[in-house]
Amino acid sequence: MNEKGYVFSLSVVGGLITAYFDKYGIIFIFVGIAIVFDIVTGMVRSAANGIPITSKKARVGFWKKVTLLLALFLGIFMDAFLPQLVLTIGARIPFSLPFGMIIGCYIVLNELISICENIYGVNALSMPKWVVKLLKGYKKNIDDLTKEDKTNE
Q1: Whole-angstrom Cα distance, residue 112 to residue 107?
Q2: Cα(94)–Cα(71) distance, rounded to whole angstroms?
Q3: Are 107 and 34 contacting, i.e. CB atoms less than 8 angstroms apart?
Q4: Cβ-contact 105, 79 below 8 angstroms
Q5: Contact at 8 Å (CB) between 116 and 132?
Q6: Which of 18, 38, 46, 125 is the most buried (most CB within 10 A)?
């Protein structure tokens, strides 16, 4: 299959996923790409720095990726379940719940940070340091919002 065939096939698969999963299709694609890219860059970093990949490291990493997907599915479940729960008491939520998208975006952000760190760990000249700092700043802002909510309780 030539390059155009691969691009066409990926486009069709991506379109089908997006159409089937409605608004969650695109976040599934982004999370999947980010996870795969993080795994690949992590393996490249280990190989480039002469760090062996042990079965224990691989097992721990695998279960971390599984928990990311479980968190995403939990967010999507909450988006579907909470409006139904509210309907049972006779109320309505007048907007679409964002839990799945928020969790998906947070996963992608964390994976992007890890990908950048992996690339930077192989070759510091391949990426400006400020890109990693910018992504970490976004994550810190999100985490700080959570801390502020706990102090206001």
Answers
A1: 9
A2: 25
A3: yes
A4: no
A5: yes
A6: 38
